[in-house]
Structures are given as C-alpha cells and as structure tokens.
C-alpha cells in the first residue's frame, strides 16, 4: 500500500514536470518572430497553483523550485527570484488547501487572483529595489489579467484531462 502511494506521488510529480516543460517549450518557440503581441497567460503559474490546491502531496516544494529555476534561466529572468516567489506562493496556497477545498470555485479563483497579484507585485518590487530591468507596468497588468482569465479554463482542463477535480480529499495521510 505504501509503495502504491509513493508510486502515485512519483507519477504525479513526473506528470507535472512533463507538462511544465511542455509549457516552457511552447513559450520558447518563436511562433511569430518580430511581431509584438499582447502577453499571454502564465500557464505554468496556473498549473502549479492548481496542482498544489488539488494534489498537494504529489508536488514537492523542491520540484516547484527547480522547475521555476530552470524557467528563470531559460527565459533570462533574474535567476532564482521568480522561483523563490513561486515556492513561497505555492507553500502559502498549500497551507490553506484544506480550508479552500470546501469553498465554491469563485472564492478559490478570487484568492488565487489575490495570490498571483501579490507574487507579481513582489517580483516587481524586488526588481525595482535592486535596479534590475523591469517590464512595463502595462505589460505586467495585461499578463495578470490573462493569467486570471486562464485559471478557470486550466482548472477545468486539469479536472477533466488530468483527473485533478476539486473537493477530493487525498487519502494518503500516512506519508506526510
């Protein structure tokens, strides 16, 4: 029984990392070079928060930190800043997962929107504090709006395709 639980956790972590890398690959592919478009949603952020809120024991904090560190390196962002913020944000969501589970989806969506706003504001604050290049505020706001708008879609797809529905209690309490 314990081996089966460990296998499920390992498979869940591997699936998350595979999806994360697919999203990262999609972001790196130049689909329309030279053309300036609106910023799209941060699907990796949505996927991480959904996974932490649906299956918190399947996604260790080390996997989140390493995945976002690789993303920082490949997207040429300040190394470790977004990874550290994502670790803090995902752990804050993980800590409140049991309380959020019974609430309606709209409340979860609102709380995730507030958490993402805090993460983006903290990222911007640290970049300004250390005189790092900062993207324009309009672009950040547009990405925030796109990310919040994509959250319900990604949540529905995760529940349907990945078997990550809401309101399902994990039963593997022995291996906390």
Automatic annotation (TrEMBL):
The chain crosses the membrane at residues 12-29, 61-88, 109-132, 144-164. Keywords: Membrane, Transmembrane, Transmembrane helix. The keyword Transmembrane helix applies. This is Rod shape-determining protein MreD. It comes from Paracoccus halophilus. The lineage of its organism: Bacteria, Pseudomonadati, Pseudomonadota, Alphaproteobacteria, Rhodobacterales.
């Amino acid at each position: 029984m314990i081996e089966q639980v460990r296998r499920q956790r390992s498979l869940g972590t591997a699936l998350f990392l595979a999806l994360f890398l697919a999203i990262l690959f999609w972001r790196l592919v130049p689909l329309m070079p030279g053309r300036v478009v609106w910023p799209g949603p941060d699907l990796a952020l949505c996927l991480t928060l959904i996974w932490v809120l649906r299956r918190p024991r399947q996604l260790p904090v080390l996997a989140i930190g390493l995945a976002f560190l690789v993303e920082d390196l490949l997207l040429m962002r300040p190394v470790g800043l977004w990874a550290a913020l994502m670790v803090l944000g995902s752990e804050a969501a993980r800590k409140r997962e049991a309380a959020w589970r019974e609430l309606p989806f709209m409340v979860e969506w609102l709380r995730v929107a507030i958490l993402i706003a805090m993460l983006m504001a903290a990222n911007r604050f640290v970049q300004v504090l250390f005189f790092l290049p900062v993207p324009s505020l309009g672009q950040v706001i547009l990405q925030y709006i796109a990310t919040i708008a994509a959250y319900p879609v990604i949540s529905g797809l995760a529940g349907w395709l990945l078997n990550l529905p809401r309101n399902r209690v994990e039963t593997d309490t022995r291996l906390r």
